[in-house]
């Protein structure tokens, strides 16, 4: 059986709980499953790629070292993404030790979003409209942009986004809603806006 098939055999929570019991193979599968996503998200929060990779690796090291203490009932992807965000926030705190303290809510999201042109038909006007949509999305406030990324690219629920951004549910919901309202004013294409966001490249 190919490695990719093995990795897709077990759901996250099964692998997580096996890992909590000391199963190194389950830990390895989770690492391979989410490493790239975590690095990509980390790169959206810090321009230092080497430090981001260190942060992601440190998150996995902590998960393994404290496996007996981590909660069993978690959404694994959300937990790992949140852990990376918190570790990068601490990185900012350390690097700005002689400046004003940097909290988790001060970490700014700066990843560029681009809708795949292959999803769009050959109509020139439609393609130009999509380029305009990309510009609108990339000019959204950083928090709105990050909320959309977490909601539609990473598939997180609003509750999980709220926890990650250290805000209440209503505030997280408002971030997503306001961003979508801004984009929907400009997008009247055949493909739904949600489809485009979920298929976008970050």
From TrEMBL:
Q: Tell me the Pfam families matching this sequence.
A: Sigma70_r2 (PF04542), Sigma70_r4_2 (PF08281)
Q: Does the keyword Transcription regulation apply?
A: yes
Looking at the record, the residues that make up the RNA polymerase sigma factor 70 region 4 type domain are: 135-181
The source's superkingdom equals Bacteria
InterPro entries assigned: RNA_pol_sigma-70-like, RNA_pol_sigma-70_dom, RNA_pol_sigma70_r2, RNA_pol_sigma70_r4_t2, RNA_pol_sigma_r2, RNA_pol_sigma_r3/r4-like, WH-like_DNA-bd_sf
Annotated GO biological processes are:
DNA-templated transcription initiation
Output the Gene3D superfamilies linked to this UniProt entry: 1.10.1740.10, Winged helix-like DNA-binding domain superfamily/Winged helix DNA-binding domain
Q: GO molecular function: any one?
A: DNA binding
Which intervals hold domain RNA polymerase sigma-70 region?
A: 30-94
Going by the UniProt record, its keywords in alphabetical order are: Sigma factor, Transcription, Transcription regulation
Keyword Transcription among UniProt keywords = yes
Query: What's this protein's family per the entry?
Result: Belongs to the sigma-70 factor family. ECF subfamily.
Protein name as catalogued: Sigma-70 family RNA polymerase sigma factor
